[in-house]
């Protein structure tokens, strides 16, 4: 597949270089770590350093929490219209600077420039959405059982929020969390992934330009002090909520640490999404959906298809058509205009994908296309057939560009296979039988279902893991992000009992 490696690289250029911020952001000031330490951020495509940012520790995170606490009362007491206006100003700034933001994202994450641009626009929709939702945080008047008495329920912001975000969508995951928190009236301390701090810092700069008051938004960067900083966010009494996106293992640890202060917590964790193609499906549509679902961000997405189940009568045809489409991908540097798919984030990711392919092949899988790395962090998109449940991919989230195809015979059989996972984030299936559509959508033990579509993310819909009809909670997280429900995770209810009327 060497012919599919794009090599025409143009040096990225910024229209506004000041958006490439290399300091942390606390109380509307650009600051260095108190220790003076820094760490290097690496471009996964070239493996060259693109810059340094402060290596902050517990002392620094406490300063950020202090600033957020100081700003909270004033921010919470603004009218909803005021917060709406700030967020809309930020939305405008993001769209005005989307090209530079996409350049930053490609530099630190590696995805193609066009995909980065799509993420920036997608992230901006959450800022606009929650600007509007800030004006719809309604309370209630409950009919009282007593005369001369009223029961009022008010909604109030929860307080200072610690936001811990991942590297795979370094802009959109921040806007999805921050916008809801700010709309509710909370102030925030953001700890971005060490691999991708610059997207967070650029958004902080745009918040300054949008007029946000000091202390409302704070960004702390760290690499080697991640554990200590995370522990401080979870145990500090002034932080009232943690919102985290990442692995289930880390989510469990943060939940355990937050229990010491009974802190409110939202978790968007791992997935192992089944993707089912029934024999009555539109195969061309299913292939396109699988590509969108599996290979976006090189498969480095929690809702990416991990196990693709194809009914036996169409298995060979689907596999052939999918492999043919994948053969047209151009892997390379994200700034090459020919590139459709960039590198994996680092060598750990490459090693995991390699291990999954080697394990599958050793147990009888066949490689239709791909299956090998190129150089550095680049791995060719892969299609595997003859997959079985004994293979590691079946139980582990690959987080890479491997389309693993499993054969099934009946609807009952595939539902047992699809639900045989501790995770319950997302699931997908293709069918033109309307009765089957409702049966399978209800039976999948996940929080989000894509029916005849491989794309399920948008600001209007609630994003998060789920449980099955027997309330068997799975390990893909707690709470919802986006939609009209997303703001609720940052709100407390206050009951006012008013007598003597």
Structural overview:
By secondary structure, the protein is α/β, with parallel strands linked by helices. The chain has two domains: 269 residues, 3-Layer(aba) Sandwich (Aldehyde Dehydrogenase, Chain A, domain 1); 186 residues, Aldehyde Dehydrogenase, Chain A, domain 2 (3-Layer(aba) Sandwich), CATH 3.40.309.10. 36% of the residues lie in helices and 21% in strands. Strands 16-17-18-14-13-19-20 form a seven-stranded mixed β-sheet, sandwiched between helices. A six-stranded mixed β-sheet has the order 10-9-8-11-12-21, with helices on both faces. α7 crosses α8 and α9 crosses α10. The radius of gyration is 23 Å and the shape is globular.
Write the layout of secondary structure elements.
Blueprint: E1 5-6, E2 24-26, E3 29-31, E4 38-42, E5 49-54, H1 58-76, H2 80-96, H3 98-109, H4 113-133, E6 140-142, E7 150-157, E8 160-164, H5 172-184, E9 187-191, H6 198-209, E10 217-219, H7 226-235, E11 239-245, H8 248-258, E12 264-268, E13 273-277, H9 283-295, E14 305-311, H10 315-326, E15 331-332, H11 347-362, E16 366-369, E17 382-387, H12 392-395, E18 402-408, H13 411-419, E19 426-430, H14 434-443, E20 448-451, E21 477-478, E22 491-498
């Amino acid at each position: 597949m060497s012919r599919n490696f794009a090599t025409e690289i143009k040096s990225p250029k910024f229209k506004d270089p000041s958006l490439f911020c290399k300091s942390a952001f606390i109380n509307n000031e650009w600051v260095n770590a108190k220790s003076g330490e820094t760490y290097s951020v690496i471009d996964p495509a070239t493996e060259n350093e693109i810059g340094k940012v402060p290596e902050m520790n517990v002392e620094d995170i406490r300063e950020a929490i202090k600033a957020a606490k100081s700003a909270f009362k004033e921010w919470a007491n603004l009218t909803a219209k005021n917060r709406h206006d700030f967020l809309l100003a930020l939305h405008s700034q993001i769209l005005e600077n989307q090209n530079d933001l996409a350049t930053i994202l490609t530099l630190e994450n590696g995805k193609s420039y066009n995909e980065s641009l799509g993420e920036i626009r997608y992230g901006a929709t959450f800022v606009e959405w929650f600007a509007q939702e800030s004006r719809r945080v309604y309370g209630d008047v409950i009919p009282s059982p007593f005369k001369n008495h009223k029961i009022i329920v008010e909604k109030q912001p929860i307080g200072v929020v610690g936001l811990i975000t991942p590297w795979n969508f370094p802009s959109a995951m921040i806007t999805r969390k921050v916008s809801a928190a700010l709309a509710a009236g909370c102030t925030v301390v953001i700890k971005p992934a060490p691999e991708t701090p610059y997207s967070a810092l650029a958004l902080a700069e745009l918040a300054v330009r949008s007029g946000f008051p000091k202390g409302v938004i704070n960004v702390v960067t760290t690499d080697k002090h991640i554990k200590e900083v995370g522990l401080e966010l979870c145990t500090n009494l002034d932080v009232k909520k943690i919102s985290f996106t990442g692995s289930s293992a880390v989510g469990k640890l943060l939940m355990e640490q937050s229990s010491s202060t009974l802190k409110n917590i939202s978790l968007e964790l791992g997935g192992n999404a089944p993707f089912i193609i029934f024999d009555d499906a539109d195969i061309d549509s299913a292939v396109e959906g699988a590509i969108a679902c599996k290979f976006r961000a090189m498969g480095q997405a929690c809702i990416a298809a991990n196990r693709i189940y194809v009914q036996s009568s169409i298995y060979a045809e689907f596999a052939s058509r999918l492999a043919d489409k994948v053969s047209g991908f151009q892997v390379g540097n994200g700034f090459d205009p020919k590139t459709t798919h960039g590198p994996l984030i680092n060598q750990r990711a490459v090693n995991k994908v390699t291990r999954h392919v080697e394990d599958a092949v050793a147990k009888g899988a066949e490689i239709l296309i791909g299956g090998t790395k190129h150089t550095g962090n680049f791995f060719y998109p892969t299609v595997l057939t003859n997959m079985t449940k004994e293979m590691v991919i079946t139980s582990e989230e690959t987080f890479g560009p491997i389309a693993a195809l499993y054969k099934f015979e009946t609807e009952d059989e595939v539902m047992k296979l699809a639900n045989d996972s501790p995770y319950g984030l997302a699931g997908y299936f293709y069918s033109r039988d309307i009765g089957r559509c409702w049966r399978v959508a209800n039976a999948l033990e996940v929080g989000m279902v894509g029916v005849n579509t491989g794309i399920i993310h948008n600001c209007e819909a609630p994003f998060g893991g789920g449980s099955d009809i027997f309330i068997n909670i799975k390990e893909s997280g707690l709470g919802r992000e986006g939609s009209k429900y997303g703001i609720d995770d940052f709100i407390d209810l206050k009951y006012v009992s008013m007598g003597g009327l």
